């Protein structure tokens, strides 16, 4: 899906300036713009439930009622207040996306590093497996899982997470390749360090920039996947921006705000995430160029 | 009078979600795609009907029709012996008379003597006998919905008279032949080249996209109102409505209730609205907790605000339901008091029965109708006030009607368009093939068996009242409301008539429509 140039990170851990990534981003205006967008959406999500004018499930008007005093964004497909649902609908969406990305990244990073330090034959086999998964379109993979187990918050999050693993593992494997040829890694291995020690003490600290960028990529992909699934009707049943798009698409000519309001929230959040991630990628690339 | 053997399989099979590639941008693209078609370009009149939606599974063999397109084809190309007419009662169609003996176990069907097949041959009693025998010999779907017919006891008495000697007496006989799946076909029927007696001939078939019919000018009940009928497929209700108001189609066969005002507000177009016996009905599984307890079933009935449901989901287009089926059946018991929304009483009932509130219940639903999801969401919201914590799970329709069908604690099914007896035979009695509630009541079954053998209308109505009282007090179904048929029409179209007991716009009887 997303192609990414993997920076060649070969700097040993004792040379690293831990604050350099953050410093590079602090002077990047695009990072600031992205951060402001992300924080704005997160703040709306956190405070939304407290300031929503009506409970999100309450019927307050007829279906697709136009905006009116007391109903600033109009009503949705069942006559519920769109503003209240936008204010409340971010929580489930953001939490599900965040957990899915973290889960997918977590497993993918460990798998990718394992492939990276494995022997040629094992690595070849594992890469073949992950490539086989990658040829299945991601959304299809998720739909198959949901069809088998039904859509609820757990299956949604886990299936979206599963779909990320192969991609992350590929990227992390490539980054790990750059580490395993370094002397400090060979020295650690020769000194009898265990596999876990090698992975988490020698490899991970040296590819952390790549992992962070990959996390940003996967986060965006997970949110798009969740929004797409909601649009197809697979949502966890909670009030959610993704589900709102699905619910209200039939009235897009009558009450476009019921669709656009959640779309705008998702779009602002994803744009912000992408800006931050790109700034991070530039910072990582800049550091390794030094 | 009552009941048809309409689709003998759960109706949701007709709709499935397109698993299309999805993304946010994709949302905005969907609204605009329509298929265009031209209307009258010379003196011949062409009626264009938009429908959601045709499929490449649409059968040319009426006995195997399970889809919207299959029913459309059956209604245009063929005739059934009887039909549910505009008043909701059955009337003869290809038959001129359907008469019982004294005990309803022998029925005599007299055919119209002027009906012909589209190749010019007359429709005879032998064709009817061959059609019925074919259902059973090939185990086609109608054989499953006609348990009282013995195919060896169907005889042609003369050229236009058929005698049925039934396995057991039943007054439901005439209604059983209203379903488009029971259309009569020639004795030498070839599904690949369907020859029928109906008002139209299928002249072109682009499966899943468009059906083109040419008028049968010699139709025995009078030539249809137009020379050509084009039935065009639309992916969803929104795009069909846009095509109507853009002048691309003359009839939008099913308008979503939320967009009625848009069409009514467009000059030159309006929505023809009539009540039907169709209903989206909640099924409570009486084999599982908590709905094995009649108290919980009654409590959930009180937890549904039926008027609010009609207002919020259906924009007011619908009529109140009272947990029993088909108000258009003359046997319907209208004396049962209307069930009112009373969440406090529901809560009190549950607490008195020892339940700790909120009572968790799983609801499984699919998009078997465009409004199904909305109806389920409203139930979740309304029932919360009565102490129910309903977890709604959406599954696609193939999954819904798959192996797990009948195991859901609570689910929403699409029923109706069946007389009271057929509805009971399909979904309520102990032997009903689609009784996914698994509810049984020996007293109910005894009343049913007695009623279907009772030829006297007054006596039978009394028995049905007793049946419906049992359903009302302890049955497994919540029938919250009855759906309106909403058909979008160009002002050029005339002849629109209500068919309250038939599924689809005018029961898909497009022969009644004219242009200009």
Automatic annotation (TrEMBL), chain A:
ABC transmembrane type-1 domain boundaries: 94-277
Q: Can the keyword Membrane be found in this entry's annotation?
A: yes
Swiss-Prot/TrEMBL keywords: Cell membrane, Membrane, Transmembrane, Transmembrane helix, Transport
- What Gene Ontology cellular component terms go with this record? plasma membrane
PROSITE patterns in the record? ABC_TM1 (PS50928)
Q: Which GO terms describe its biological process?
A: transmembrane transport
- Check the record and name the CDD domains matching this protein: TM_PBP2 (cd06261)
Pfam families, alphabetized:
BPD_transp_1
Residue ranges of the TM segments: 31-52, 86-114, 126-149, 207-234, 254-276
Q: Which SUPFAM superfamilies match?
A: MetI-like
Q: Which Gene3D superfamilies match?
A: MetI-like
Q: Which domain of life is it from?
A: Bacteria
Q: Where's it found, cell-wise?
A: Cell membrane
Topology versus the membrane, per the UniProt entry? Multi-pass membrane protein
Q: Which InterPro entries match?
A: BP-dependent_transpt_permease (IPR050366), MetI-like (IPR000515), MetI-like_sf (IPR035906)
Q: Which family does it belong to?
A: Belongs to the binding-protein-dependent transport system permease family.
What name does this protein carry? Answer: Peptide/nickel transport system permease protein
The species this protein belongs to is Herbiconiux ginsengi
From TrEMBL, chain B:
What region holds the Solute-binding protein family domain? 90-429
A single GO BP term for this record reads: peptide transport
Q: Name one GO cellular component term.
A: periplasmic space
Q: Per the record, a Pfam family? A: SBP_bac_5
SUPFAM superfamilies, per this entry? Periplasmic binding protein-like II
Entry's Gene Ontology molecular function annotations: peptide transmembrane transporter activity
Which InterPro entries would you find in this protein's record? Peptide/Ni-bd (IPR030678), SBP_5 (IPR039424), SBP_5_dom (IPR000914)
**Which Gene3D superfamilies did the record assign?**
Dipeptide-binding Protein, Domain 1, Dipeptide-binding Protein, Domain 3, Periplasmic binding protein-like II
Q: Protein name, please?
A: Peptide/nickel transport system substrate-binding protein
The record lists the organism as Herbiconiux ginsengi
